[in-house]
Structure formats: C-alpha cells, structure tokens
C-alpha cells in the first residue's frame, strides 16, 4: 500500500497535477429578498498557513467590486458581510442589487485558486408596464411593449389576445399559422410587421418568474383600420374644384375689365410727394412772369 501511494505521488509530480484546489458546496444560491445568503468557499491545506482570501462581486451589467479585501469587508458591505468557517461569506438583508456572480479567490504558498458562486435574489413579479396602441392602420407596423422592472430573476413575458395565449412561434401552431406577429418573451415585445384586420382585439401581457405568482397588465383594445382612400380622393377632388373656380373667377374678372380698372387705379394715382413738387414748380413760374411785367411798367 505504501508503495502504491508513493507511486501515485510520483505520477502526480511527473504529470504536473497539483493538490491545490478551491471549491464550493453550492455554486448557484437563491434566496428571498431581505434574507441572508450564505456563499460557501473552501480550500485545501496545500495553500499553507498564511492564506490570502478575497471575495469579488460582478453584477449583471459587468461592474466589478471587492466585497472582502485585506482581511475585512469593504466599506459598502461592512455592516452586512461576515466571514465564517474556512472562507464562507454571509450576506445579510440581500436585495435585487446583490444579484450577480461572487468569486472566492485564495492564494498562498505561491499558489492561486478561485471558485465562482452565483447569487439570485428572489422577488415576485409586479404588475408589468404595458404600451399597447389603440389604433393601427392596415399594412403598417405595430409594436406592443411589456416590462416589469421589479421581478427577480428577470421575468419572461407572455401575450394574450382576447384572453387566448399567443404562442411564441405561431408557425408551429395550426391555429396561428396565418399570424404575422413576432414575439420576444425575454424582451416582452409583440411586433406586427404588417398589421391586418384580423389582428384587431384586446391584448394584455403577463410577467412570470420563479419567485412568485404571475402578474398581468390591464387589457387594451387595439383597432386595425383600413387606409381611408375614399376620403383622400374626395379631398383631392375638392382641392381641384376650388382651383378651377379660382381660375374661372380670374378669367371672368379679366374679361369684364375689372382687373384692368383695378390695375389702372393703382398705377395712375399720383403720389403725394409728386403733387407737392408740381405745385411748387407752378408757383415759381407764376412768380417769374409777374416780376417781368412789373419791370416792364417801370
């Protein structure tokens, strides 16, 4: 037996296999909001007595931060983080902002190891916010929106028309093969590329996750109407008729001489300044003749 153990150790040394390891008893933790979350982490004795332990956090948006560093919790977590056991970390009063991935990093004896633990804070869905148009024109695109900012994990969305569940892929359902919509259950959108009269109806959305009962928004009736081509044609005809009447009125006025008289009255009307200067010139002429006559008498 001793010879077998020595042989295994020699084989491990020859192949570069190391006994250094970091592990967790639960890498996918789910707890309800405002409760405690235990993130487990353990490591082998190969790291030696002077182990350096760090916990890091990465949220769903990619932002990273230290939770435990330098032998103590960082300032944002100081009041609700504690280390127990070998390297376990406990978070108290977790909220949705604690959702993400936590990484336990262990280093010592010139070795390094890590393990990732996912934390999901369970929050039931709230009544989703829905945006449903009340009127759509045939042949035009229409998008219905649904979103719940509260539920955790992020809810998935289902759409109902006249209280009937719409399948995610209508081509796989014989009752909806002629449907023209596209449904995104992750984003909560229901899109009609070219709305038709058959798309009219009452629509509402339902948000669902694993934390609690589903929630629905209020149903809204969406009408689909044909383009009013008759009204457009009538409007064009009325505009053309008014244009014809205007042309006829101008022609009639010109024929009767109304336009000529009107134009002449504007062009022949003397300007006040011209009358003034003309009168002044006549006075000067009269004064000149009078002076000549007086000279003749003398």
Automatic annotation (TrEMBL):
The principal location of this protein is other
Instruction: Kindly give the Gene3D superfamilies that the UniProt entry links to this protein.
Output: Immunoglobulins
- Superkingdom per UniProt: Eukaryota
- Which InterPro entries does the record associate with it? F11R (IPR042456), Ig-like_dom (IPR007110), Ig-like_dom_sf (IPR036179), Ig-like_fold (IPR013783), Ig_sub (IPR003599), Ig_sub2 (IPR003598), Ig_V-set (IPR013106)
Query: What Pfam families does this protein's entry cite?
Result: Ig_3, V-set
Signal peptide bounds? 1-19
The cross-references to PROSITE patterns, in alphabetical order and at most eight, read:
IG_LIKE (PS50835)
User: Which residue ranges are recorded for the region named Disordered?
Assistant: 271-298
The record gives the membrane topology as:
Single-pass type I membrane protein
Q: What GO cellular component is one of the record's annotations? A: bicellular tight junction
Transmembrane domains' residue ranges: 232-253
Q: Where is the composition biased (Polar residues)?
A: 271-281
- Location in the cell: Cell junction, Tight junction; Cell membrane
Give the UniProt keywords, A-Z.
Cell junction, Cell membrane, Disulfide bond, Glycoprotein, Immunoglobulin domain, Membrane, Phosphoprotein, Repeat, Signal, Tight junction, Transmembrane, Transmembrane helix
Q: Where is the Ig-like domain?
A: 20-120, 125-221
Q: Which GO terms describe its biological process?
A: cell adhesion; establishment of endothelial intestinal barrier; intestinal absorption; regulation of membrane permeability
Subunit note: Interacts with the ninth PDZ domain of MPDZ. Interacts with the first PDZ domain of PARD3. The association between PARD3 and PARD6B probably disrupts this interaction. Interacts with ITGAL (via I-domain). Interacts with CD151.
Family, as annotated: Belongs to the immunoglobulin superfamily.
Q: This chain belongs to which protein, by name? A: Junctional adhesion molecule A
Record organism: Oryzias latipes
Name the gene behind this protein: f11r.1
């Amino acid at each position: 037996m001793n010879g077998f153990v020595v042989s295994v150790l020699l084989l491990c040394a020859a192949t570069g296999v190391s006994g250094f390891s970091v592990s967790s008893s639960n890498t996918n933790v789910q707890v309800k909001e405002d409760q405690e979350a235990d993130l487990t982490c353990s490591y082998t004795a190969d790291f030696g007595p002077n182990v350096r332990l760090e916990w890091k956090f990465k949220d769903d948006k990619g932002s990273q931060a230290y939770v435990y560093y330098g032998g103590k919790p960082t300032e944002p977590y100081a009041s609700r983080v504690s280390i127990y056991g070998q390297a376990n970390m406990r978070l108290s009063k977790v909220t949705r902002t604690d959702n993400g991935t936590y990484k336990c990093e262990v280093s010592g004896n010139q070795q390094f190891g890590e393990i990732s633990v996912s934390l999901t804070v369970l929050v039931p869905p709230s009544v989703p916010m829905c945006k449903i148009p009340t009127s759509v024109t045939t042949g035009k695109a229409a998008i219905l929106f649904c979103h719940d900012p509260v539920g955790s994990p992020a809810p998935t969305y289902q759409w109902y028309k006249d209280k009937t569940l719409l399948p995610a892929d209508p081509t796989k359902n014989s009752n909806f093969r002629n449907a023209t919509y596209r449904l995104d259950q992750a984003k909560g959108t229901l899109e009609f590329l070219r709305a038709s009269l058959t798309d009219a109806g009452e629509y509402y959305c339902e948000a669902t996750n694993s934390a609690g009962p589903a929630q629905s928004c209020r149903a809204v009736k969406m009408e689909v109407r044909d383009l009013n081509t008759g009204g457009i044609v009538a409007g064009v005809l009325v505009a053309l008729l008014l244009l014809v009447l205007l042309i006829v009125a101008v022609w009639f006025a010109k024929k009767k001489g109304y336009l000529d008289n009107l134009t002449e009255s504007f062009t022949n009307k003397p300007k006040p300044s011209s009358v003034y200067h003309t009168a002044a010139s006549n006075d000067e002429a009269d004064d000149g003749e009078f002076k000549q006559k007086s000279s003749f008498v003398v």
